[in-house]
Input
Amino acid sequence: MRMALALSVMLLGACGGAAASSGSTTSGGRPADFALRSIDGSTVRLSDHLGKDVVLISFWATWCSPCAAEMPHLERIWRSYKGQGFVVLAVSMDGPETIADVAPKIRQNGFTFPVLLDEETRVQGALNPGRAAPLTILIGRDGVISAVHEGYTAGAERALEDEIKKLL
Output
């Protein structure tokens, strides 16, 4: 199931955010490159994965209940397919008041995929201007956005996993 959702559409299961302006991330486009610091201190660049990996970018926050429900599924999918050229880049949308909670929450839940800190909200501004959480962007090996999913509802991970398998 492929979806092309403009970020201006708010679906049930999202933690809110304002409607997006023009230039929203949509299926068929190419994402802007970025470099962010991970919680382990390394720098991760999207361009390091484009052209060789299927990339799932997940915008999430520690204060977002649907994000908390989705993250264990992303971990399972990450572990299942990372050896086949699949990468999850979880971009935290936490601001100054909650950024210190990110690393402990990730470690407490045993998540092993890269978690990136967008402290200056540049990546969020480019790829998620509506501040939807969670927001999942799936990018094929060709660097083209294959799907954009806003929000999370129980069972949605099965369709997402099917989309990933098709891209691998």
User: Anything to note?
Assistant: Residues 34 and 45 are 6 Å apart (CA to CA). The chain has one domain: 35-167. The chain has four helices and seven strands.
